[in-house]
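ok so I'm stuck.
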Amino acid sequence: MKFLSVMPNLYVADIGQAAAFYRDLLGARQTFAVPTHVEFRLGDVTIALSSRDVLRDEGLTVPTPGHPMELVVWCDSADDAVATLRAAGVPVLVEPHDGHGHRRAYVCDPDGNWIALVSDKDA
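replied:
not stuck anymore, here's the structure
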């Protein structure tokens, strides 16, 4: 198992307003967009903005203000990553499943922060 990269994903109440902030005020370049999710490149980092409304579809509760973030960790296999992390005692919030064109699962770090483990569906 090999972890490949990390992408911060901020959950927002208003995608358009948040996208305008990152694009127009911070100068981020949009690299991907669907109605409920937008990704921007800012320097060497890709940052994602997702509508809070999509969390119910992922099996998670809507975050409270001040805690609207997850880390998206790309890996070569979400299933293998969950198995390895579970064996190490990491809490699994959502089992691996197909969604949004990828294979994804959710675990949490020691502070309860959500970590989305994402891989290609074919992995």
